[in-house]
Structure formats: C-alpha cells, structure tokens
Amino acid sequence: MEIVVRAAIAFGLLWLLAKASGKGTLGEMSSFDLLVFVVMGDLIAPGITGEDRTLTGGVLAVATFALLAVGMNYLSARWRKVDRLIEGYAIILVKDGVVDESALRRQRITTEELKVAARQAQLESMDDIRLALLETNGKISIFPRA
C-alpha cells in the first residue's frame, strides 16, 4: 500500500511540474527537455518503490501511474470544470495584430516562436493575424484576417 501512496504523490508532483513548465514547452519538447523528463522519471522511481526492488513493487507503481492517468482522462472527459483544471484552456497570444506580451511571458513563448508559427501559416507579419491561440496541446493556432 505504501508504494501506491508514494506513486500517487509522485504522479501529482510530476503533473504539477509538467503544468508549471508551460504549454508551449510540452507541445514542442526539445531533445533536452525530453531527456530531462525521462531522467526525472528515473530519479523518482526509487523514491516511489523505496527499498522494494521486486517485480511486484515496480508493477504496482506503474499500475498506479496508469490508473491515475486513466482516471484523470475520464474525469476530464466527463466534467468540463475538471477538464479546464487538468488540461487548461486556449490562451490568446495575438488579437487583431496586437501581440499579448504578458501571455507570451507567462507561457514562456518567445516572439520568434510566434513568428515561426505565423510564417508556417503563410503570414508575413503580426498585422496579418486576426487571432493566434496557444491551444491546450501546446500548439499555436493562427487565424488570418479575412
């Protein structure tokens, strides 16, 4: 039972850490970011299982993580408020050509990343953007002016 409690605590902490790293970071992970998250998982594993090095302890820890992830997905699909808490919501980055610098800072998105997204949408300037949203999956959606 102790492994289940430790795994649940670790799951919650890792979820909070992933949320704190920002949507842009999660949507477009670099090789370094991916490496950091994998190593974090490896570093936290002994804390979850304690001194238990048995196959049962490892399976129990992984099963707890899987059940919590499935449970969060179920709750997210069932209740909109829970979905907003877990997944977040789209954030306006540009409205009618005006860049929201504070939103970029909060989400740790550089102006250059926004410009890349605009170019990928075949837009040359921020003035050509009616609306740019940072979606919950970390991708930037761009809607051009009509």
Automatic annotation (TrEMBL):
Keyword annotations from UniProtKB, A to Z: Cell membrane, Membrane, Transmembrane, Transmembrane helix
List the transmembrane segments.
55-75
Cross-referenced InterPro entries: DUF421, UPF0702_alpha/beta_dom_sf
* Pfam families, sorted: DUF421 (PF04239)
Compartments it resides in: Cell membrane
Principal localization reads membrane
Q: How does it sit in the membrane?
A: Multi-pass membrane protein
Instruction: Give the YetF C-terminal domain ranges.
Output: 78-144
Name the family the entry cites. Answer: Belongs to the UPF0702 family.
Q: What is this protein called?
A: DUF421 domain-containing protein
Q: Which organism is it from?
A: Micrococcoides hystricis
